[in-house]
Amino acid sequence: MAHDYYHIPADQLGEGAKIPLEVLGDSGEIFYEMALTMVEEIEAHNARDEKTVFICPVGPVGQYPIFVRLVNERNVSLKKCWFINMDEYLTDDDEWIDAADALSFRGFMERTVYSKIRPELVVPEEQRIFPDPTDPGRVGRVIDELGGVDIAFGGIGITGHLAFNEPDPELSVEEFAALDTRVLSIHPETRATNCIGDLGGALEDMPHRCVTIGMKEILGARKVRLGVFRDWHRAVARRAAYGEVTAAFPATLLQNHPDAKIFVNSVAAGQAY
To answer: What digits encode the pLDDT tens for the residues 108-118?
Structure first.
């Protein structure tokens, strides 16, 4: 059965959407918007001597070089920041892949973010949180201790997944929204899509397992800001913002969030078909 929302033209995208869609130009505009949002939130909290808690993705990633530059140029202290990463790939034995692996999100954050920020400004190591397959409950405990997440940043996967919260049509919306940090298998569609961008199509070398924060943590953030960039995001963004709320397409659950927004570049704004 065809769905009318896939046929919404670019110049009408966002009209009547159940999640606000902000259509920008090229991807650089979205990356800058996300980086500036991070910096301004931190600056506002620093001015009040308050901590800042973010959920951070590795995908999208283009915001990080801009964020690093702004932090260093504007002398923004990250000493009262907690960065909680969304997820990490696992071995078949459910252990973190090596941080030196090109696919490692832990390694990416160190190479691209933490090592590039001036030492007197950078987030303290103990405040860089990654979901741990040996103690998945730690993320929830940290968030509770900190009083919640200020902003959850991220993207949307081909199956509508946020972090690695893959669809589960057998669950009700309420049950799916209550899922917390856990280890799970990655859907074949996600592995195939990710291997194109990350491994040049080497599907056999893509991990099958991951640890991910849950929908509970994402939906519990005070704000959610997502960016979409690719041609297949034309359909993903439209279903997320206009489709039925369902555990079969996790991003639709953001329709029930009080302060969620999706930044859409000119490619993803195009009509799906």
So the answer is: 999 999 999 99
